[in-house]
# Entry
Amino acid sequence: MSRFKRLNPFSDKEYLSRLAALTLPMVLQHLMLASVAVSDAFMLGSLEQNAMSAVSLATQIQFIQNVLLGGMTAAVSVLAAQYWGKKDSSTVRQIMAIGVRVGSLISVVFALGCLVFPAQLMRIFTNAP
# Structure
């Protein structure tokens, strides 16, 4: 054990600043998603139960979109990390560009689906009018 220096990542200020720079956007994203759910509950709290149920069903579509985007992001991150380890930054840029395109395509498909076919999408989750 004397040959190896004991690592304490919490004493390394550069590590902590990089960690904060990476995690802060993720924390803000999750905070925004949670605040949307909370604001829905507050806004619809005075309405009847059917309205709250309808909003809950509609957010299931957003949840599916978020799951697809999260899976795509994880896959892009793993691929990019492999090429980053090889010091192949041009391939990392290509992978990231593909990820942005696929993520944008997923978002556009869901946005168009919600704008053009809202009733059909809601019928996936319920048969109630």
Notes: The chain has a mean pLDDT of 85. The two ends are 68 Å apart (CA to CA). DSSP finds four helices and no strands in the chain.
